[in-house]
Amino acid sequence: MKKDLKIRSTKFAHKCVKLSLSLPKNDLGFHMKKQLIRCSTSVAANYRAASLAQTKKGFISKLSIVIEEADESIFWIEFAKNENFLINSDDEILNEAKELTSIFIASRKTAQKTVSS
């Protein structure tokens, strides 16, 4: 599962980078581009770091960062959509962001249960 999520989160980051490159070349577009690239690549990078955590608490801590960054990715994708910068075909990337966020939240809950036990 960890390997699958590493691959999936990396693919998500690549898709977000490509999507961000299509944003308008104005002040708002540039701001959104930088934010979306930053948070989406952080999802993949921090998930890799979480996978290498030496303790369960370290894993949970890094996973919490992943969740925050994934949720921020959702925010920027929805914001771009609300600004009419995206087309309906970009719903796939929004759905992927939401699915990844849900998976990471479930993983953190499971990990927290095993620490508490």
UniProtKB/TrEMBL annotation:
The protein's name in its UniProt record: Four helix bundle protein
Gene3D superfamilies referenced in this protein's UniProt entry, alphabetically: 23S rRNA-intervening sequence
Entries under InterPro entries matching the protein: 23S_rRNA-intervening_sequence (IPR012657), 23S_rRNA_IVS_sf (IPR036583)
NCBIfam families in alphabetical order: four helix bundle protein
Lineage: Bacteria, Pseudomonadati, Bacteroidota, Flavobacteriia, Flavobacteriales
